Amino acid sequence: MSETVGVVGAGRMGLPIIGHLARAGFRTLATDLDSARQPGVESKAALWRPDAASLARECDIVLVCVGFDREVRELLGPDGALRSARRGSVCAVLSTIHPKTIQDLSGQNRALGLEVIDSTVCRGGDAADRGTLLSFVGGPRQTVERITPVLRAYSADVVHTGGVGSAQVAKAVNNLIMWACLVADHEGLALAQRYGLDIDLMRAALGMSSAANEALEKWGTQTMAWAEDDMAIVAEMAAACGLALPQADVTREICRALKPQIAALRHRTRLRKPCMDLTARSVTCSLMSSCSVFKIDVPH
Q1: Are residues 14 and 158 in the same domain?
Q2: Which of 105, 48, 100 is nearest to 73 (CA)?
Q3: What is the pLDDT of residues 8-39, one digit of tens each?
Q4: Same domain assignment for residues 138 and 269
Q5: Alpha-carbon distance 74 to 58, whole Å?
Q6: In which domain, by residue range, is 174 found?
């Protein structure tokens, strides 16, 4: 492969992506603010660089895999480390951020000769490990065509969603529906449990029904670590365009309440401690739209 590809961020998603790129034959560079991740990067046959600026100077294509909007702004905003990138290079932001952020940064960097696009990923950590992610890509067609072979190294499917920012919109829609499904799964299984049904049997049966969804298929593996951030972006987007999304508002509140309960359950499971008391504990959610209160049990 002729392109040199750099990855900024070697965390849960970034590290397997780095490995797939190297195995696909790309000269792969990587960096992370946490230098303790260097051995993991080098174990993937990639080259470590001490900072994003030095990485960008060597790369034709840079993939940004950091966690938050502000981190992307720090990398690509005024005096950002990636402003040192070569003219004619491409920076694809895989992070889930507000569409306007990527549009603003794209416009600012184009004058410097750096093409900034968004290329969000779906399907989670297991798909990253397998190299079967779904990549949404927002940007000019010529740029998307150039970067697609890179994306194919870790993606089973690549969808060009439109102009810059459109991949962020697509990811926000994905997240809105995904978290709503997870909340519905919790409520449905809690109802089944209260009426004495076997939860494992119900999960298997629902997986064959019209209620099948990926959150149900991956039941017990979701940490909900990003639920609040994801739904906050959805809320900001809806407010910006004057669109009421009442179910999304409710989903956000329930996710906020469920997150610590699921974290506690996963912790108990890891420690092999009894967790039956958690199933009897209820999660109380105050709904912003009606100020009503209801309770749902978290099944184990």
Answers
A1: yes
A2: 105
A3: 999 999 999 999 999 999 999 999 999 999 99
A4: no
A5: 20
A6: 169-297
